Amino acid sequence: MSSDLKSVLGAKVRAAREGASLSQEQLAERINRTPETVSNIERGKNMPAIETLQALCSTLGLRLSELFADEDLGRNADRVAREHSLIQTLRTLSESDLEVAEKTIHALANRTQR
């Protein structure tokens, strides 16, 4: 198993956990695993079993497909985590706030492309 895949998956799990304001211990308890297991997943040391992946997705409000997005492979795991954290936050916004966020992000993107 590619260490890149494990690192990106771990970064996404960490971002989702932090976005949910959960400690590793709290997440471990909710998915019936040890805090060490959660830590190893987040650090890209271990690839979790499918049952653990399902529990993580259910608990953190993720889709399994998000964890394995091909476009994230080969990219910096910290950047992937930040982007994923933003996506999780965007999902919590009202329609009007989402529109404001969209305009702000587009303005920032256009500013940096100049």
Automatic annotation (TrEMBL):
Keywords: DNA-binding. Residues 13-67 form the HTH cro/C1-type domain. InterPro entries: Cro/C1-type_HTH (IPR001387), Lambda_DNA-bd_dom_sf (IPR010982), TransReg_Diox_bact_type (IPR050807). PANTHER family: HTH-TYPE TRANSCRIPTIONAL REGULATOR (PTHR46797), TRANSCRIPTIONAL REGULATOR (PTHR46797:SF2). This is Helix-turn-helix transcriptional regulator.
